[in-house]
Write a structure and sequence with these properties.
heterodimer, A: mainly alpha, MetI-like fold, 12 helices, 2 strands, B: mainly alpha, 2 domains, two-stranded antiparallel ribbon, 3 helices, 69% helix
Chain lengths: 290, 91
C-alpha cells in the first residue's frame, strides 16, 4: 500500500517555534554575547574573551551557591518524594472523600510563590507568627533571620508544604491506574503489604515518579521567590541560592559579564541533569513497553 | 536593530556553526533515514542525540580546561574533536 507523505503539519508547529525563539533562544544568545564582554551601561560593550568564565570558575561565592543549591534540591527531594508516596497510598480510592482530598491537596499548588513566601515569613515570626510564637513559647530558640538552622528549616518546610501535593497527586494518578486484578493476585499469594508496595505499586508508579522527581528537581534548582521573600538569602549568605546570587550580581551590582558567564554554567548544569533524567525516563518506558 | 543583543564576531560564528550543524543533521536525517542504535551507554541514540551529547560534553570539557589548566583554550577544542569522534563511533 502506498502511504501519502504529507509534511505540511510541521507548519502548525511554527507559532510555537516563533514563541520559543523570542522567549528563550534570542535571550539565551544575548546572554552568550554578554558573557564574553564587559559593559558599563549605555549599551557600550568591550571584548573580554573568556575572562568572566575563568573568574566565575575560581569564584568561591559561586561554588558555595552551587553546593547550597544542590544540597537544597537533594534535601527537598529526599523528603517530598517518600512523603508524597505515603500520602498517595493513604488517600481514599473513591467516593466523596477522594474528591475532597484531591481538592485539599491541590490548594497549596494554586498559591503564587511570593504569597507562599509571605505566608511563611509571617507564620515564622516570633512576635506575631503562630509557628514562631509557639516554638518560642515551648523554649526552642527559633529565629529564621539570625539562625542558620532555623532559616534552612523554614525554607525547606515551606517547600515541602508547597510542593509535596504535586508528588502526591502524581503518585495517586499512578496508583489509580493499577487494575484490581494485580491486588487480587497478590491476595491469593498472601503477599505482605510491603511486597504489594515493592512489586506492584512501586513499579507501576515508577513512570510518574520520575516525572515528579524531574519537575521537583528543576523547580527547586531554580528556586528564587520563596527564599527571597522569607530570608532574603540570609542570615549572611546561608540561604543565598544560585538564582538569588545571580540576580544580586546582574541587577544589584550590574556585573552583566560575570552574571552572564555564571548563567551559562547554571544552564549547562540544568541541561545535563535534565537530559540524564529524561534519558532514564524514556528508556524505562521502552523497557516496560518491550 | 540588534544592537541590544551586543553581537560579536566570535559569538556569531559560534552560533552559525551550531546552526549549520543542526541544518546538516536535518538534511542528513531526511536524505538518509536511520534507525536508532544502542551504544556503550546502553541507551538508544540517533545522530541527533549523539550531536547533543557531543555539544553538551564539549561545553563541560571547555569549562574544565579553562578552570583546571593554564594551557591555550584551542587545545580543548582538539580534545572536543576527539571526544566527538568517539561519541559518534561508540555511543
Amino acid at each position: 500500500m502506498n502511504k501519502t507523505v504529507n509534511q505540511k503539519a510541521w507548519f502548525l508547529v511554527l507559532p510555537v517555534l516563533v514563541l520559543v525563539a523570542f522567549s528563550a533562544i534570542i535571550p539565551l544568545m544575548t546572554v552568550v554575547n554578554y558573557s564574553v564582554q564587559d559593559s558599563f551601561g549605555n549599551n557600550e560593550f568591550f571584548w573580554a574573551g573568556l575572562e568572566w568564565f575563568e573568574e566565575m570558575l575560581e569564584s568561591e561565592r559561586m561554588w558555595a551557591a552551587l553546593w547550597r543549591q544542590l544540597a537544597f534540591s537533594a534535601i527537598i527531594l529526599a523528603i517530598e518524594i517518600p512523603l508524597g508516596i505515603f500520602v498517595a497510598l493513604n488517600m481514599p480510592k473513591s467516593g466523596f472523600w477522594a474528591s475532597f482530598c484531591l481538592v485539599l491537596m491541590s490548594l497549596p499548588l494554586l498559591i503564587p510563590w511570593n504569597v507562599v513566601g509571605t505566608i511563611w515569613q509571617i507564620f515564622g515570626r516570633v512576635d506575631i507568627g503562630l509557628l514562631g510564637y509557639t516554638l518560642d513559647a515551648i523554649g526552642i530558640d527559633y529565629n529564621y533571620t539570625q539562625n542558620f538552622y532555623a532559616a534552612w528549616a523554614t525554607v525547606i518546610v515551606m517547600d515541602v508544604w508547597h510542593w509535596t501535593s504535586l508528588v502526591a497527586l502524581l503518585a495517586y494518578a499512578g496508583l489509580q491506574s493499577i487494575p484490581d486484578a494485580y491486588y487480587q493476585a497478590a491476595k491469593i499469594d498472601q503477599a505482605s503489604r510491603w511486597a504489594v508496595f515493592r512489586y506492584i505499586e512501586l513499579p507501576k508508579m515508577a513512570g510518574v515518579l520520575m516525572i515528579a522527581i524531574l519537575l521537583r528537581f528543576m523547580d527547586s534548582f531554580m528556586i528564587y521567590t520563596e527564599p527571597f521573600v522569607v530570608t532574603g538569602g540570609g542570615p549572611g549568605n546561608s540561604t543565598t541560592f544560585l538564582s538569588i546570587d545571580l540576580v544580586k550580581m546582574a541587577l544589584g551590582q550590574f556585573d552583566l559579564g560575570p552574571a552572564a558567564a555564571f548563567s551559562i554554567m547554571y544552564f549547562l548544569v540544568i541541561l545535563l541533569i535534565s537530559w540524564v533524567f529524561y534519558t532514564v525516563m524514556t528508556n524505562m518506558d521502552k523497557r516496560d513497553g518491550a | 536593530m540588534l544592537d541590544w543583543m551586543a553581537w560579536t564576531w566570535p559569538t556569531a560564528a559560534f552560533f552559525l556553526v551550531i546552526a549549520s550543524l543542526l541544518v546538516t543533521m536535518t538534511v542528513l536525517a531526511i536524505r538518509f533515514p536511520e534507525t536508532p542504535r544502542q551504544g556503550v551507554l546502553g541507551i538508544e541514540t540517533t545522530r541527533g542525540d549523539r550531536l547533543f551529547i557531543t555539544l553538551l560534553g564539549s561545553a563541560f570539557i571547555n569549562l574544565a580546561w579553562l578552570g583546571l589548566t593554564d594551557l591555550p583554550q584551542w587545545w580543548a577544542l582538539g580534545l572536543c574533536a576527539i571526544y566527538a569522534a568517539a561519541v559518534f563511533r561508540w555511543v
